[in-house]
């Protein structure tokens, strides 16, 4: 499969890459429940517990997880401070995609977002093993990425 070199996309107006300053400075998390196979917004987070953001109150094992259950069942994902092309918040572990023209037609890429050496990165390696990556901020400024899932629900 022949792939053409990625080209910068001509944009009439600059797009917002970084969330507004007040929002970007805030720490926000999502959590992946491995047992229930679902993603949820985090309301409370401690060393050994997490509480889901819900109006139903706190119910241990349903929307509040602690101790061994928290360690074995829950994966925490931090907000990067960046937005995709649609203005959606990008969290650690999310997969971003853009479209590339190949000899077989348009193909959507899928790259995971991760933290390494003090910065948010985007993985370009074929096996998504983090062996070839770039700064997330740089690529968000140059290409039209959108969220296409996350690494826990659909393995790359």
UniProtKB/TrEMBL annotation:
Protein name per the record: YopX protein domain-containing protein
InterPro entries referenced in this protein's UniProt entry, alphabetically: YopX-like_C, YopX_protein
Domain YopX protein: 28-153
Domain of life: Bacteria
Organism, as annotated: Pedobacter segetis
